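Record type: ASSEMBLY
Status: queued
Input:
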Amino acid sequence: MRTISDEQKILLDSLAKVVRDRVAPVAAEIDRTGAFNWDVVSLFWDLGLLQIMLPEEYGGWPKNPCHTLCLCIEEIAKACASSALLLIIQVVGSFPLIEAGSEAQKKRYYPMISEGRNLMGYLVTEPGAGSDVQAISTTARVSGDHYVLNGTKVFATNGSVAGLYTVLAKTGERELSFFIVERGMAGISIGRIEDKCGFRGSNTAEVILEDVVVPKDNLIGKPGEGFLIAMRDFDMSRPAVAALALGLAEGAFDYTVKYARERYTFGKPLIEHQAIQFILAEACTLIEASRGLMERAAMTFDAGERNTKLASMAKYFCSDAAMKITTDMVQVLGGYGYIKDHPIERMFRDAKLTQIFEGANQIQKMVIGREISKNR
Ligand SMILES: Cc1cc2nc3c(=O)[nH]c(=O)nc-3n(C[C@H](O)[C@H](O)[C@H](O)COP(=O)(O)OP(=O)(O)OC[C@H]3O[C@@H](n4cnc5c(N)ncnc54)[C@H](O)[C@@H]3O)c2cc1C
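Status: finished
Output:
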């Protein structure tokens, strides 16, 4: 039994049809060309999927937005993980504003997101700082009524297609702060666009900030609150990455079960060989366990309770499960699992990233360990 409301069920039923008709048919092509698919972006704006976490008057989902977001991500990821990632980066990028933005900032930027249909980018990672967020070197120096930003951000999802960025920079020796930065501001340029192993339909770019003059009003929260905002963002985004991994695993599993019914070896369908059934049994169990953790992490966030430990558990468990399941599903298809006529090899490549970003899985275990040691 799933813990979804009647409203969520209606949303998911119609989303499943849209995914089947409009997203699944382009998934292989997006992966092959690596081109950013603006048609999918427009479709998601039309469906309200890129505004889910905003307040209701800006198109947001009224009840349990994080859980609803996760369910939508899961549904889309069954067919196309690159498309599902669009939902994640949109909320990760807008979260600092939602969590700590002033009324004036919300009044200016919520309409730019919702009606202006601006994609978001989240600029934290740098060449010298990935897992260790506090090691960033981008600076924001006060100059009159402005801050002047300088630094290089890497691996930015939506980096070259976003209209708005939330940027983490140093406002003091040990002080990190977020800024909302418009793509059109002078001094912003795009460096390399990454050529990736998976998630090839997702845009990943280097963004260079050279003397970018940003009004003081664009500082989000108070100076020095950036690290805490980033950590709170993870509490929302890690269940979302868990949902991404879960969707990938389910997509690979469903495809493989169908294949194993139709493929014959030694005079019977593959699915009737016990060795294959054992692989499928493990995958099916991991999927159910993943769903339980992901939903608990998301619903705890929506309830306004501390979910840091659960969010890290969900993120690492679901992504490790997705990596194992997609690898095993390649094995069940044999040679056919390794060629591009079937989606399994794409899902196998995509699954790897879920173990790495939004905090690599080693970092998740550090967070869980810390929470245990503090008895939270
Ligand atoms: C496709 C893609 C999209 C991304 N999108 C974004 C984005 O939109 N915005 C953004 O800011 N970033 C983004 N990232 C960056 C991503 O979050 C980082 O890659 C990730 O946090 C890991 O950082 P790193 O790559 O620098 O690895 P490192 O920090 O160098 O770590 C390397 C390895 O060592 C392990 N490790 C590190 N420290 C420890 C330790 N203390 N103990 C044990 N193990 C440790 C890590 O788990 C990892 O396995 C993206 C990355 C990719 C690949």
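Annotation: The radius of gyration is 21 Å.
Annotation: Residues 89, 122, 124-125, 130-131, 155-157, 196, 199, 204, 353, 356-357, 359-360, 362-363 surround flavin-adenine dinucleotide (CB under 6 Å).
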